Amino acid sequence: MLRAIKTTPLHRFSSLTSISRSISTLILAEHDGGAIKSQSISAVEAAKSLDKQTSISLLLAGSGPSLQQAAAHAASCHPSISQVLVADSDKFTYPLAETWSRLVQLVQKKGEYSHIITASNSFGKNILPRAAALLDVSPITDVIAISASNQFIRPIYAGNALCTVRYSGSNPCMLSVRSTSFAVSVDSSKCNEAPISQVDLSTFDEDSVGKSRYVNHTAQDTERPDLGNAQVVITGGRALKSAENFKMIEKLAEKLGAAVGATRAAVDAGFVPNDLQVGQTGKIVAPELYMAFGVSGAIQHLAGMRDSKVIVAVNKDADAPIFQVADYGLVGDLFEVIPELLEKLPEKK
Description:
Rossmann fold; seven-stranded parallel beta sheet
């Protein structure tokens, strides 16, 4: 059961002292190319906020050598990780919701964790609701701050308001967290290796899976940084008018060593693939520098980038909502501004 509440004094939580002493957390981690994704490491950082004494286990699933490499990386990527649990089976070659949710149910039955956390990305959003249904609990999504072991803050109304939520249900308390809100500042070279254990899959319920199947996976072949983790993001909107014109954004990103983003309108118009969409229904980003060209600033888009450190907006409409959140704004035609930037910016070394 979830209840939205106003912030209350800490003495109201005195009755939860005994609960906080037994906090143990399971992180549902995503890996790729033999390494743990940064969003999953941010989930570990979030787990630290639950309690200083919490025991953190990290769950990996997959098959083959890349899984073992990812397990070795997980064991030494963060000092707060107590153990790494590895489910090695062909059933987990692809991260399907059915197989992963059954795995979470199996691991929870054995470990009896008080909290289960994953990143609020496509991986976490796919698995968490189904796993929560199997465990008969209500998940709390898109958490940006943790006040106590059962009290969390999440944005509502496209980020225009913050809701404080107290969890009063049974264990486990299941969360998805925004990785941009839990920055990782750990030198992994100084971490001690956590023990790695294999998950016993002898009782894994294979009959319950198979309702969906893996078809294929596509990814852009580019040297640009990942949109979700980039320090600089260059975003284009519908004002670019065509996919051909959108290449100006890509050229500017190459010069700045930046990631490319797009508004939903640009994606719907077919200018770029949907994995570049920034916003409430796309990716949430918080780079050091966010540059928006031809972006009006719809509320759904602002929800995905308002936490950027410096926001620069270029739009010929002086009344565009994007200027209300921009640190620097230029009223001008992007078809004049971008070519001039491309001419004057030095080539990336």
